[in-house]
Amino acid sequence: MARDGAARRPARTSVWLADRARRGGRGGGQPSGLDRERITEVTVRLLDAEGLAGFSMRRLAAELNVTAMSVYWYVDTKDDLLELALDAVHGQLRLPDPEADEDWRDQLRTLAREYRALLVRHPWLSPLAGTYLNIGPHARAFSRAVQRVIRGTGLPAHGMTGAISAVFQFVYGYGTVESHFIARSADFGMTPDDYFRHSLRTVTESPTTAGVIEESKDIMAARGGDTVEEMMERDFAFALDLLVAGIEAMVARGSAP
Known about the structure:
The chain has helices at residues 36-50, 57-64, 68-71, 78-90, 104-121, 125-129, 137-151, 157-187, 192-205, 210-215, 217-223, 228-252. By secondary structure, the protein is mainly α. Helix 5 (104-121) packs antiparallel against helix 7 (137-151).
């Protein structure tokens, strides 16, 4: 609990709800000849290359070859930049055509696969997704596409948010863990396949964990796949099929609350 008289930070909402349009910079000037789109583009590139821990306004300014103060003509805070970057990468999602004659199952799988790929492509995305409101134009377009597809399932209104949570919180978790595995492999200078074999060998050789591997041999063998990518793809596809089947089952039974 905050002490009486202690200064409190005002609750932050979103860069997308700011009263002041910042595209022309403070006071309408453009001292560095930049624009917000260019700054956001470089922010995304730095986050991809160096991660959240390595990102700073000073590092961004150096990459843009301007002073740090010049960047503040276009955004108020580092948080603003991260929120802009978060929405920018959502623009990479390929959304189903609302006019296409396509089954909701196929459209849902497309959205799920696109979101998973986005999380893997940009490992810094997952921590930011839970930090900001994420209400930029690209994120809103994705949200509308998801809602449109879920409305087409036949689920009653009271079950739609639960269905969205089941599918996309699964995808969020799967994509996050997958991106962490790939990043950890790279940290050790290994491919995901080499790191997987190394980890499996290490665990198998340990008396305290070898039993777990032995007990799961049949499951791992049935899983199939010669590479980590194939194994993860098969698991993802099957898990997604389970979720689709669950939606179908709830529709069939009338989804009584």
